[in-house]
Amino acid sequence: MTRCLSRWIAAALLWAAIAPAASAETLAAMVEQWGLLGSWAVDCAAKPDRDKGALLTYEIRKDGRVMYRRNFGDAKDENEVVSATVGAEGLLNVMVYFPSLHQAREFGLLLLKDGSLRAIYNRSERGEYTIRDGKYVATGAPTPTQQRCD
């Protein structure tokens, strides 16, 4: 199992390293067209906090890479979006590589009619879900909507 995981991570890193610039432009265009770019939070007026809500930002760097920044108040990180596809019913499937976690995570986001964003799923490359069907696996509570903060 560990060997398979290591190979998957190595393959993802290799793919990210050798992907042509056109792919980066396509990824950037896709997330921009879908409406993901910008900062999002459950409550934009609240200070970022790990327990009360983080500020999540998606941006395109000058080199064309799409980055995902998380601000938890007491901790911040920046991670690269390595792929994104639009699936059924407009669900944006995003894969982000987290160097600090030594893993990639995939999550599905839905842009609602009122312009808010909602996480529908979040899973590790091993298939371990923290969010499934729009609910937190640990509690069964529905994921909150996030508003654009900029």
Structural class: alpha+beta
Give helix % range: 10-25%
Main sheet specs: 8 strands, antiparallel, barrel
Spans where pLDDT lies below 50 across 5 or more residues: 13-22
Strand content: 35-45%
Number of helices: 2
Order of helices and strands: HHEEEEEEEEEE
Mean pLDDT: 87
The dominant shape is: globular
Strand order of the largest sheet: 1-2-3-4-5-6-7-10
C-alpha Rg, in Å?
Answer: 15 Å
Task: Compute the separation of the termini in Å.
Answer: 42 Å
- Oligomerization status of the protein chains: single chain
Count of extended strands: 10
Explain this structure to me?
By secondary structure, the chain is an alpha+beta fold. It is built from 2 helices and 10 strands, in the order ααββββββββββ. Helix content is 21%, strand content 41%. The chain has helices at 2-18, 21-34; strands spanning 38-41, 55-60, 66-71, 76-86, 92-98, 103-111, 117-124, 129-132, 135-136, 145-148. The longest helix is centred in the first third of the chain and has 17 residues, at 2-18.
List the topology elements:
Layout: H1 2-18, H2 21-34, E1 38-41, E2 55-60, E3 66-71, E4 76-86, E5 92-98, E6 103-111, E7 117-124, E8 129-132, E9 135-136, E10 145-148
Antiparallel strand pairs: 1-2, 1-10, 2-3, 3-4, 4-5, 5-6, 6-7, 7-8, 7-10, 8-9
List key phrases describing it.
150 residues, alpha+beta, eight-stranded antiparallel beta barrel
Q: What can be said about this structure in brief?
A:
It contains two helices and ten strands; from the N terminus they run ααββββββββββ.
